[in-house]
Amino acid sequence: MRAAYRQWRREQHQPEKWKTGIDPARAPESWMEKSRTWNWKERAAEWDLHLFDEEEDVWMQRREALREQEFTLSEELLSRAKTLLNWPLAEMSQPALDARGNPIHGPDGRVIFQEIKPSKWSLGDAIRMIIAGDELARRATGADLHIGVVVDIPWNDLTREQLRRIAAGENYEQVLLGE
Fold this sequence. Notes:
The chain is mainly alpha-helical. The chain has helices at 2-12, 27-38, 40-86, 123-141, 160-167, 172-176, and strands at residues 92-95, 113-116. It has one domain. Strands 1-2 form a two-stranded antiparallel ribbon.
Protein backbone atom coordinates (compact mmCIF):
# COMPACT_ATOMS: atom_id res chain seq x y z
CA MET A 1 0.00 0.00 0.00
CA ARG A 2 2.82 2.38 0.88
CA ALA A 3 4.63 1.59 -2.38
CA ALA A 4 1.49 2.39 -4.37
CA TYR A 5 1.19 5.71 -2.54
CA ARG A 6 4.82 6.59 -3.27
CA GLN A 7 4.36 5.77 -6.92
CA TRP A 8 1.25 7.92 -7.08
CA ARG A 9 3.13 10.80 -5.40
CA ARG A 10 5.97 10.49 -7.91
CA GLU A 11 3.56 10.52 -10.83
CA GLN A 12 1.64 13.50 -9.48
CA HIS A 13 4.75 15.50 -8.63
CA GLN A 14 7.05 15.29 -11.62
CA PRO A 15 9.35 18.05 -10.42
CA GLU A 16 12.37 16.95 -8.44
CA LYS A 17 11.51 19.22 -5.54
CA TRP A 18 8.43 19.28 -3.38
CA LYS A 19 6.43 22.46 -3.13
CA THR A 20 8.50 23.38 -0.06
CA GLY A 21 11.69 23.18 -2.05
CA ILE A 22 13.04 20.11 -0.24
CA ASP A 23 14.38 17.30 -2.31
CA PRO A 24 12.35 14.17 -1.33
CA ALA A 25 15.50 12.07 -1.38
CA ARG A 26 16.93 14.19 1.46
CA ALA A 27 13.84 14.14 3.72
CA PRO A 28 15.13 11.53 6.18
CA GLU A 29 18.36 13.46 6.65
CA SER A 30 16.43 16.62 7.36
CA TRP A 31 14.42 14.71 9.96
CA MET A 32 17.63 13.60 11.63
CA GLU A 33 18.89 17.17 11.54
CA LYS A 34 15.66 18.50 13.10
CA SER A 35 15.77 15.70 15.67
CA ARG A 36 19.22 16.85 16.75
CA THR A 37 18.30 20.54 16.60
CA TRP A 38 15.13 20.13 18.68
CA ASN A 39 16.38 17.30 20.95
CA TRP A 40 13.47 15.06 20.03
CA LYS A 41 14.94 12.00 21.72
CA GLU A 42 15.49 13.76 25.06
CA ARG A 43 12.15 15.55 24.86
CA ALA A 44 10.35 12.27 24.12
CA ALA A 45 12.08 10.65 27.11
CA GLU A 46 11.09 13.59 29.33
CA TRP A 47 7.50 13.36 28.10
CA ASP A 48 7.45 9.64 28.88
CA LEU A 49 8.71 10.40 32.39
CA HIS A 50 6.05 13.08 32.78
CA LEU A 51 3.31 10.62 31.78
CA PHE A 52 4.78 8.00 34.09
CA ASP A 53 4.80 10.49 37.00
CA GLU A 54 1.17 11.43 36.34
CA GLU A 55 0.16 7.77 36.29
CA GLU A 56 2.19 7.10 39.43
CA ASP A 57 0.39 9.96 41.20
CA VAL A 58 -2.98 8.46 40.27
CA TRP A 59 -1.90 5.03 41.56
CA MET A 60 -0.49 6.59 44.73
CA GLN A 61 -3.86 8.19 45.43
CA ARG A 62 -5.61 4.87 44.78
CA ARG A 63 -3.24 3.05 47.16
CA GLU A 64 -3.83 5.69 49.84
CA ALA A 65 -7.62 5.38 49.43
CA LEU A 66 -7.32 1.60 49.69
CA ARG A 67 -5.21 1.91 52.87
CA GLU A 68 -7.87 4.18 54.40
CA GLN A 69 -10.60 1.68 53.51
CA GLU A 70 -8.59 -1.22 54.94
CA PHE A 71 -7.94 0.65 58.17
CA THR A 72 -11.61 1.65 58.56
CA LEU A 73 -12.68 -1.93 57.89
CA SER A 74 -10.15 -3.23 60.42
CA GLU A 75 -11.57 -0.89 63.07
CA GLU A 76 -15.11 -2.09 62.28
CA LEU A 77 -14.09 -5.77 62.46
CA LEU A 78 -12.30 -5.31 65.79
CA SER A 79 -15.26 -3.36 67.16
CA ARG A 80 -17.67 -6.14 66.15
CA ALA A 81 -15.37 -8.75 67.66
CA LYS A 82 -15.38 -6.81 70.95
CA THR A 83 -19.17 -6.65 70.83
CA LEU A 84 -19.40 -10.39 70.18
CA LEU A 85 -17.14 -11.15 73.12
CA ASN A 86 -19.42 -9.16 75.43
CA TRP A 87 -22.49 -11.23 74.52
CA PRO A 88 -23.16 -14.66 76.00
CA LEU A 89 -22.89 -17.81 73.95
CA ALA A 90 -25.92 -19.40 75.58
CA GLU A 91 -29.41 -18.24 76.42
CA MET A 92 -29.66 -16.41 79.70
CA SER A 93 -32.11 -14.45 81.74
CA GLN A 94 -31.38 -11.18 83.53
CA PRO A 95 -33.43 -8.47 85.19
CA ALA A 96 -34.80 -5.77 82.90
CA LEU A 97 -33.31 -2.40 83.83
CA ASP A 98 -34.63 1.13 83.44
CA ALA A 99 -32.58 4.09 82.13
CA ARG A 100 -30.94 4.57 85.58
CA GLY A 101 -29.96 0.91 85.84
CA ASN A 102 -32.61 -0.04 88.42
CA PRO A 103 -34.61 -3.28 88.02
CA ILE A 104 -38.09 -2.87 86.56
CA HIS A 105 -40.95 -4.27 88.65
CA GLY A 106 -44.20 -5.63 87.26
CA PRO A 107 -47.72 -4.78 88.56
CA ASP A 108 -47.43 -7.59 91.09
CA GLY A 109 -44.17 -6.13 92.48
CA ARG A 110 -41.93 -8.85 91.14
CA VAL A 111 -38.81 -8.06 89.10
CA ILE A 112 -39.30 -8.49 85.35
CA PHE A 113 -36.69 -10.66 83.68
CA GLN A 114 -35.66 -10.46 80.05
CA GLU A 115 -34.49 -13.42 78.03
CA ILE A 116 -31.29 -12.94 76.07
CA LYS A 117 -31.01 -15.22 73.07
CA PRO A 118 -27.74 -14.60 71.25
CA SER A 119 -27.41 -15.05 67.54
CA LYS A 120 -25.57 -18.13 66.35
CA TRP A 121 -21.88 -17.38 66.72
CA SER A 122 -18.91 -18.98 68.38
CA LEU A 123 -15.59 -17.87 69.77
CA GLY A 124 -14.09 -18.94 66.46
CA ASP A 125 -16.11 -16.22 64.72
CA ALA A 126 -14.71 -13.58 67.07
CA ILE A 127 -11.21 -14.99 66.64
CA ARG A 128 -11.47 -14.79 62.84
CA MET A 129 -12.70 -11.19 63.10
CA ILE A 130 -9.80 -10.29 65.39
CA ILE A 131 -7.27 -11.90 63.04
CA ALA A 132 -8.76 -10.28 59.93
CA GLY A 133 -9.01 -6.88 61.63
CA ASP A 134 -5.45 -7.13 62.89
CA GLU A 135 -4.10 -8.13 59.47
CA LEU A 136 -5.96 -5.29 57.74
CA ALA A 137 -4.75 -2.75 60.30
CA ARG A 138 -1.15 -3.94 59.98
CA ARG A 139 -1.30 -3.82 56.19
CA ALA A 140 -2.96 -0.39 56.17
CA THR A 141 -0.41 1.10 58.56
CA GLY A 142 2.59 -0.69 57.11
CA ALA A 143 3.17 -2.54 60.38
CA ASP A 144 2.98 -5.97 58.74
CA LEU A 145 6.69 -5.97 58.12
CA HIS A 146 7.46 -8.75 60.60
CA ILE A 147 9.49 -10.57 57.98
CA GLY A 148 10.63 -14.02 58.98
CA VAL A 149 8.61 -14.04 62.20
CA VAL A 150 5.83 -16.56 62.34
CA VAL A 151 3.55 -16.25 65.32
CA ASP A 152 1.46 -19.26 66.18
CA ILE A 153 -1.08 -18.05 68.72
CA PRO A 154 -3.07 -20.83 70.40
CA TRP A 155 -6.38 -19.09 69.77
CA ASN A 156 -8.52 -21.99 70.94
CA ASP A 157 -6.73 -22.07 74.30
CA LEU A 158 -7.25 -18.38 75.09
CA THR A 159 -9.79 -17.25 77.65
CA ARG A 160 -12.51 -14.74 76.85
CA GLU A 161 -10.62 -12.13 78.84
CA GLN A 162 -7.43 -12.71 76.83
CA LEU A 163 -9.41 -12.45 73.58
CA ARG A 164 -11.00 -9.19 74.78
CA ARG A 165 -7.58 -7.75 75.60
CA ILE A 166 -6.14 -8.72 72.19
CA ALA A 167 -9.25 -7.32 70.44
CA ALA A 168 -8.78 -4.09 72.42
CA GLY A 169 -5.34 -3.74 70.84
CA GLU A 170 -3.04 -5.01 73.58
CA ASN A 171 0.17 -6.71 72.53
CA TYR A 172 -0.61 -10.40 72.20
CA GLU A 173 2.76 -11.35 73.71
CA GLN A 174 1.97 -9.45 76.91
CA VAL A 175 -1.50 -11.02 77.03
CA LEU A 176 -0.09 -14.53 76.58
CA LEU A 177 2.58 -13.94 79.24
CA GLY A 178 -0.10 -12.73 81.66
CA GLU A 179 1.31 -9.25 82.09
